[in-house]
Recover the amino acids of this structure.
């Protein structure tokens, strides 16, 4: 049996992380009818639920710039590991959110911080190992 090189394991792992990351970005809007039903007793309008996605997009857009700079000074591997842990923990925590503030904190802010760490580091690692 032929040994698979590290660069191919890295590619498969980064594909899996990116696939999960994209799924967690899209799951909020797919689950929005159920989330609205769960939060119905709080009387939150459409603008409140839309603010969660807006906060995520704003935090992700600003933070990815700093994540790219961070990867120049810190181990890219650890930036990916910490980022993956952050967004995974945030998605898990968002499932237990009992109010809009906690949903914005977990899904909108912590999730965005975690997800912004992965692309710059993974792109850099993949380019380093796949030069041909």
């Amino acid at each position: 049996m032929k040994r698979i090189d590290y660069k191919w394991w890295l590619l498969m792992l980064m594909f899996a992380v990116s696939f999960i990351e994209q799924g967690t970005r899209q799951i909020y809007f797919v689950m929005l009818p159920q989330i609205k039903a769960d939060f119905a007793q709080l009387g939150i309008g459409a603008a409140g639920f839309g603010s969660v996605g807006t906060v995520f997009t704003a935090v992700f857009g600003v933070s990815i710039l700093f994540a790219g700079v961070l990867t120049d000074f810190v181990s890219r591997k650890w930036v990916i590991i910490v980022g993956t842990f952050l967004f995974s923990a945030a998605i898990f925590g968002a499932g237990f959110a009992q109010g809009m503030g906690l949903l914005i904190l977990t899904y909108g802010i912590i999730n965005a911080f975690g997800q912004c760490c992965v692309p710059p580091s993974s792109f850099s690692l993949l380019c380093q190992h796949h030069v041909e």
Summary: Residues 21 and 115 are 7 Å apart (CA to CA). DSSP finds five helices and no strands in the chain.
